[in-house]
Amino acid sequence: MATRLCSLRRPITPAAVSAIAASILLLPKKTLHAEAPPEEHLARKPIYDDLALIRNPPKASSNTTPTTSPTPTDRLASQIRHARVFLHARTAIAEDRFNAFMSTLLTHERSFTQTIASLAPPPESHERVMPGALYVLIAAMAGSIVSRNRNLLLRATVPFTVGLGAAWVVLPVTMRNVGDLVWKYEERVPVVSANHMRIRGAIEETWRQTKTRAEATRKWSDERVRQGREAIEGWVRKGR
């Protein structure tokens, strides 16, 4: 067995090498073309599905419209936006109403101050309100003292009448301004203004008749006094 193996391992002779080289040189040269396998066979399939999706992403079809539902964050943002719009609208309405209320309040305050200032007498009238008001108050208290033992009607009307008369005597310009202001407000109610005019007309007529009768009485008394004096003077002359 060992002898057979040794016989198989004999060295190659130079003549064999020369024969192989001559055959290679003498043979015609021809290019060999190898056919490449298709790409789908060369591309190996990945082990993980994510890598497959990255390499071969799905193609979106042009005829289908993607429909996406709003996320919770989008819904929360929408609700916050609606709440902000609602709050801003209500705040604007409240601000407008407050500004209108303040404007109305300032208008009434300005009108009140101007009305009070218009009741004061002008400087050229030399009429002072403060001492005159004290005199009117004292006159009203005197009327109340006088009528304290009378009935309820007199106790209610006498102080007011005495005070009003004293006001017209002491503060005529101020009372005229007050009367003009009262008449301005009474003109808004026709019934009240008509009754006021009727009562004022009756009072003025009564005052006119009173003045006329007082003047006639004064003239009659002066005439009687003059006649009596003349009679006395005549008796005195005759007695002399």
What does this structure look like?
- Helix 6 packs antiparallel against helix 7 and helix 7 (152-170) packs across helix 8.
- The protein is mainly alpha-helical.
- Mean pLDDT is 79; it is low at 1-11.
- The chain is rod-shaped and about 220 Å long.
- It is built from nine helices and no strands.
- The longest helix is centred in the last third of the chain and has 50 residues, at 190-239.
Structure in a nutshell:
It is built from 9 helices and no strands. With about 240 residues, it is mostly helical.
User: What is the count of DSSP helices, taking H or I runs of 4+ residues?
Assistant: 9
Average pLDDT reading: 79
Helix/sheet category: mainly alpha
Based on DSSP secondary structure assignment, what is the total number of beta strands? 0
Low confidence ranges: 1-11
Distance between the termini: 222 Å
Cα-atom radius of gyration: 65 Å
- In what range is the share of β-strand residues? under 5%
Shape: rod-shaped
